[in-house]
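Worked problem 6 (solution included).
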Amino acid sequence: WNVSPHQHPRLGQRSCGLCNVRQLITWFLGEFNARNTSRRTVAHFHEWQSGVGCILSRTRGLDVGTIFTTHATLLGRYLCAGSSDFYNNMPYFDCEGEARRRGIHHRYCTEMAACHAAHIFTTVSR
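Solution. The predicted structure is:
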């Protein structure tokens, strides 16, 4: 998080474990890309759990195209499930506060940073 322009979340034990795995994936991507000089490398990161890999790939300057996909943003899911009249109130939500109140701030921060870090951000929802 020291190299990311985004807020440092307080990570729970599960998130720290995910960070460790994503660091290994980023290391692998760097090694793979260094040896794979004949083709372009694209890495697709899916949902907030893989977001750290996307963030690290960009902040470490890997020559890898990045795509980050969610099926719906994590906070959006929580807000919709909470009968908040989501679409009519979207401009009025305090996203940071809502994420803290729901105990998902660390996941929200990871997802937000990955959205901003990715070359391409996609969402697949109905």
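Discussion: The beta strands are 42-46, 65-70, 120-123.
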